[in-house]
């Protein structure tokens, strides 16, 4: 017991990073609005003496936002993180972290110069020992106080503008449940008033980059607490599944024998307690989720509203989604048509790409199908199936990036819903990440998917796909151009042959060669092609 207590104290006294670095969760930092902790390696803020970074003013995007959020100055998440801090560490080169003490994703080594590539694998391709280790890591995260993060239990106003800090410790797993809640919670407007049409992680362009960062940070925290630097999140390929095949005691927990809404007592996930699931209660109290336990994980897969989600997504629906050439379109929210993001997120029909919020497709379909904790946005990360699901969603995003090879400019720079423009910082991460920084292939971020590591021939085919797609869209024009080009070529050939024949048949006494030669050379045929 003494050893446990000492270990616990060592854990909670360590400096941290994340939504609120522990070193910055104090009155002095909040009143100065500065979060530039020292790097342990040289004791200087942001490791400046070692040229790892320096304390700089935050550069906020000035690009206009969409009309979905008609307020200003009422939500701590606006212009993140300026309500709390306007100076943070800006790291150089491949350094990263709240104090520039870590390496960017995809790099390692003392000076962060060594490239690394980790592979995320299908959970059903893991050996028994690998699968058991993954489950043990999940349980360890649920029972280990975070070494890096603290959470806010009050708004900036409730903290008396920084003079009364309101933070608390949390375990590693629940930290990410809280982060997902905080990004998607409603805006508290005072009294009993809230604004629901706001979400910094969903229903807009940032949905895919935000969850990509979420998984990368979650992965890194597991690597830290286990010492397993090679750990990666497995994925569940749910295409064409007829049931929740991971919902067994061997994997993510089976069904309770007497209560279909609970998990089997044979799974240790049945003892897990959820947090941040009572959004209406928080709204009525004008309070934030404080990570108090709120009961067991709920899950009743397949017993959902069939009129909304009749089944799990199909391979054909995923392929149609991948064929969409526009990342974002129109209003850039859940009403967007022909948007790859909106179709993959599940607000547009996966067979037509037309928005239909009465139905739930692809990503949303699985959340609804699970029929429990996963089905409520703010608390959905409580169910560990969440990380398997989102790893596969991220792999579909990765396939789209490889197929269409978009430039960064494809990601909207302006007029997206609040928090979703290209240069906006993602809520609620510190160190700061911009949406556009993660709109790029996963291999540049140090990871890949097992099923995307294709043979050379398949890779060449994948490379050709965007060009074949473009050719398909303009095939009629190409055929027309070929026909007209053939006609023009025939006419030109006929005229040239006529000129030559006429030249050979001209009498030596009559020599109009100069004139006819000029006539032939002056004939100019140009096409608009």
TrEMBL record:
- Which N-terminal residues, if any, form the signal peptide? 1-18
Transmembrane helix among keywords:
yes
Where do the Tyrosinase copper-binding domain residues begin and end? 202-219, 383-394
InterPro entries reported in the protein's UniProt record: Di-copper_centre_dom_sf, Tyrosinase/Hemocyanin, Tyrosinase_Cu-bd
Kindly list the places in or outside the cell where this protein is found, as annotated in its UniProt entry. Melanosome membrane
Q: What's the cofactor?
A: Cu(2+)
Entry membrane topology? Single-pass type I membrane protein
A GO biological-process term = pigmentation
This protein's GO CC annotations: melanosome membrane
EC numbers, comma separated: 1.14.18.1
What is this protein's name?
Tyrosinase
From which source organism is this entry? Psophia crepitans
